[in-house]
C-alpha cells in the first residue's frame, strides 16, 4: 500500500482495505507517545469510507478538551509518533502531518486536532458515518470527486472548494438529526 501526496497534489486511488490497519497502527503509536485515550482518536476522511477512491493520505481527528492545555510536551509526543505541527490557519483546528521522510515533501497522514464533542468533532465523524451508512450518497461523493479532474481547477484548495457544497449538505443533515 502506497501512501502520500506532495504539496498541492491531488490524486485519487482505489479503496484499499489496508487503510484501516494503517490507521489502527498509527492510533496505537500516537497513544504510546501522548496521554491521549482511544476514544479521542478516530479515522476520518475518504480513507475511512469503505469502497470509494480517495487521496492516499490517512486523515485522523483527535478530540482534545482545550487547545490551551496543549503544551510543548504534547506536541513533542506527536513528533515522536512522527507528526509535525503545520502552519495551517483554520478556525477551531490545529493540523499536524506525517511525512515519508526528512525532506518533508510527501505527506502520508494528517491529524486534525479539534475540541472534543464540539461541532467540528461531530461533523467530521458524522460525514464518515453517514457516507458509510448510505451507499447511493457514498457513490455520489465518489463521482463528484472524480469529476474534479475534468474541470480547469487544480490543486488541493480547488479540490476542497469543489467538494464544499456536497460536504456542507451532509453537515446540514447532521443538524437536522438525520442518519
Automatic annotation (TrEMBL):
This is Uncharacterized conserved protein. Pfam families: GrpB. It comes from the Bacteria. InterPro entries: GrpB/CoaE (IPR007344), NT_sf (IPR043519). The lineage of its organism: Bacteria, Bacillati, Bacillota, Bacilli, Bacillales.
